[in-house]
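haha ok so turns out i had the wrong file open the whole time. this is the CORRECT one, sorry everyone. sequence first:
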Amino acid sequence: MKTLYIMCGVGFSGKSTLSKMIAEHLHATLVSQDGMFFEKEKELNLNVDSEEQWKMLLGMCRDKIKEELGKGNSVVFDDTSLRFSHREKLRNIAKEADAESKVVFLDTPIEIQKQRQEHNKNTKERHDVKQEYLDQTIAELEVPTLDENVIVVKPGYDFDEVISRL
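then structure:
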């Protein structure tokens, strides 16, 4: 059955890495708000600090999710999905498309997130995220509950075991 996998977690928790692995393994479409930003940045003259533009990009991502589910494809949505209400909107999109939805919550301790952030500052493997934005996501996180059909993933996970729970 087609499924919408809703990634959930704060910055540097490992969402993007796991999202790519899940999408590849399941032959699902990967939709990423960060990816959408970099795809549209020049075309739309985007500003990384504009909350309004991030909201616009989220709408574009939701449209892409609807489109892919409508084609019968499973989708992995790589975004923070911090609040219950954010995840609920995504679950409703899945319902409208007669698809299942599952939340994949990356439960990564703050110490590991900070280590990854510091590592990124040196390697620049991904874009930098301002500390105020990271702090805001930590403050806003509403940890998914079991009734949200959640799969909790902790650092050092076994990928095959994660896949078996999906």
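The chain has a mean pLDDT of 86.
again sry for the mixup
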